[in-house]
């Protein structure tokens, strides 16, 4: 069985007690903390920056996965690396030079990856697979939590899984947007191994029950 990872998105957490929230969700079985950064420019929302990443870093030992929905990206990459990020992903549309941005992330000691919106073509992967540690497929349009899963994302996940397998590289395949107990198995079947879930986990009273149920679906 693939090594499946659950990555709760703190976008849906209670920000008034964020340290407690990340500790609780890791205690409930989370493998990764997913950290959504929006700039009200590339996406129509404004969220959190490096200071918040730095603030939660001492509270958890698991990797912090920073998803940059910002444009331009290069300026802020070193700040997040310094703040304790382990993984940094960005959208091809947010960079003037994708290869350079990926290398910048790696030069700052983090794993690097590209994020694909529902309408973003996969050809951006063509010449940079050697610099990629993770590929994130958005199953909603980025900008807001709580959206419904776009089914076409399953075809895109499958296409990326083929690319990864053909490359022979050890690249994580993450999916983000509308992931919940009812559809996580379909995303896994398509080829995803890392699952971002926001409101599906943080919107429920018992985080462990939800994460356990997700793992139960993945085990099937």
Task: Give an overview in words.
An eight-stranded parallel beta sheet has the order 1-8-7-6-5-4-3-2. It has 220 residues and is α/β, with parallel strands linked by helices. The protein is 33% helix and 18% strand. The chain is built from eight helices and eight strands.
In short:
The chain is of the alpha/beta class and 220 residues long. The protein is built from 8 helices and 8 strands; from the N terminus they run βαβαβαβαββαβαβαα. The chain has an 8-stranded parallel sheet.
How would the global form be characterised?
globular
Rg estimate, integer Å: 16 Å
Order of strands side by side in the largest beta sheet? 1-8-7-6-5-4-3-2
Q: What is the residue-averaged pLDDT?
A: 96
Unreliable stretches covering 5 or more consecutive residues: none
Q: Helical stretch count? A: 8
How much β-strand is present in the residues? Answer: 15-25%
Tally of DSSP β-strands: 8
Beginning-to-end CA distance, first to last residue: 10 Å
Helix content: 25-40%
- The structural class is alpha/beta
Compressed to H and E, one letter per element, the order equals EHEHEHEHEEHEHEHH
How many strands, what sense, and barrel or not for the largest sheet?
Answer: 8 strands, parallel
